[in-house]
Design brief:
The structure is a single chain. This protein is α+β, with helices and mostly antiparallel strands. It has two domains: 146 residues, Endonuclease I-creI (Roll); 79 residues, no CATH class. Helix content is 65%, strand content 7%. It binds zinc ion. The site of zinc ion (ZN) has 8 residues, from helix 2 and helix 5.
C-alpha cells in the first residue's frame, strides 16, 4: 500500500466528536466529489450525525449550508478534503502533499483554510484542475497532525530523522573525501618541489632541518603531517612539519619552480 492510502485509512478511523466538525467534514467530501460523494467516510459520518430515518433533503441541506467558522471545523474540513481529493508522496522519497480540485473556487477555499491554520500552501493549474500543495516537510507534518493522522505523522517523522542521518553521513563522507584529495594534492606538490630542488642541485644548500624533512617526504609520500612529525628525531608537531614543507615549496618557487 502507498503512504497516501495508509494516511486515508487512518483518517477514516478518526470520528470528530462534535456535530459541527462532522458537518464540516461531510461538506468537504460532498463538495470536492462534485455533490456525489463516493468516499465511504461520508456515509460513516452520516450514520453518526443523523438519525437513520432522517430525510435525505434535510441532510443535504444541513451539509450544504453549514459554515466552517472555527479551527476545529477547519481541520475537519481539511481531513474530509484529503479523503476526497488529497494525496501525498512517500516521505522516504520526497515531500509533497496535494489536493487536486475540480474548480478554482474549491482550491481557494482549501488554501484559505490552510492559511488560517498558519500553513503556507502553493497553488497551481494542472490541466483542467487546480492543485493546492505543500512541499515543506515541516508543514506536511503539521497538516497530518491537524487532520489527526497521528500514526502517519510518526511514520513521517521517522523517515525525516532517517533522511537527516543519511544526509549527515553523506556530507561527512564527502568532506573527508575532499580533505583527503586536498592532502594528496598538497603532498604531490611538495614532492615535485623537492625533486625540482634536487635536479637544480640546490637541495644541498637547504638548512639541515629542511633537508631531513625533504628526505622524509620523498620516502613517505602518503604520510600525513602527524606521521611525518613522529618520524623526525626528535619528533615535532603537525604545525612544525607543515611549516618546514611550506618553506621547501617557497624556496623552490623562488628558484623558478611552478
Ligand atoms: Zn468544529
Amino acid at each position: 500500500m502507498s503512504f497516501s492510502s495508509d494516511v486515508k485509512d487512518e483518517l477514516r478511523t478518526v470520528i470528530a466528536p462534535a456535530r459541527h466538525c462532522r458537518l464540516a467534514e461531510m461538506q468537504a467530501i460532498c463538495r470536492l466529489q462534485g455533490g456525489k460523494p463516493v468516499e465511504r467516510k461520508f456515509f460513516t459520518i452520516r450514520e453518526k450525525a443523523f438519525n437513520i430515518d432522517a430525510d435525505q433533503r434535510d441532510i443535504r441541506n444541513a451539509v450544504e449550508t453549514f459554515t466552517v467558522g472555527t479551527s476545529c471545523c477547519r481541520r475537519s474540513y481539511l481531513r474530509g478534503a484529503f479523503l476526497a481529493v488529497g494525496s501525498m508522496s512517500d516521505p522516504a522519497r520526497s515531500y509533497h502533499l496535494e489536493f487536486v480540485c475540480r474548480s478554482e473556487e474549491q482550491a481557494e477555499t482549501i488554501r484559505k483554510l490552510m492559511q488560517d491554520e498558519q500553513l503556507h500552501p502553493g497553488i497551481t493549474r494542472r490541466g483542467s484542475r487546480t492543485v493546492v500543495y505543500l512541499k515543506e516537510s515541516g508543514e506536511i507534518v503539521e497538516l497530518l497532525g491537524m487532520m489527526e493522522a497521528q500514526r502517519s505523522l510518526l511514520a513521517m517523522e521517522n523517515e525525516r530523522v532517517l533522511r537527516d542521518v543519511r544526509g549527515n553521513v553523506n556530507r561527512r563522507v564527502n568532506l573527508e573525501t575532499a580533505n583527503i584529495s586536498k592532502a594528496v594534492r598538497t603532498a604531490s606538490r611538495q614532492i615535485d618541489a623537492i625533486r625540482f630542488l634536487t635536479e637544480q642541485g640546490i637541495e644541498v644548500d637547504l638548512p639541515e632541518s629542511l633537508r631531513k624533512m625533504a628526505a622524509l617526504r620523498l620516502k613517505h609520500p602518503e604520510a600525513t603531517l602527524e606521521e611525518l612529525g613522529s618520524l623526525c628525531s626528535p619528533p615535532i608537531g603537525k604545525s612544525g612539519v607543515n611549516h618546514r614543507l611550506r618553506r621547501i615549496v617557497e624556496l623552490a618557487q623562488q628558484k623558478g619552480f611552478k
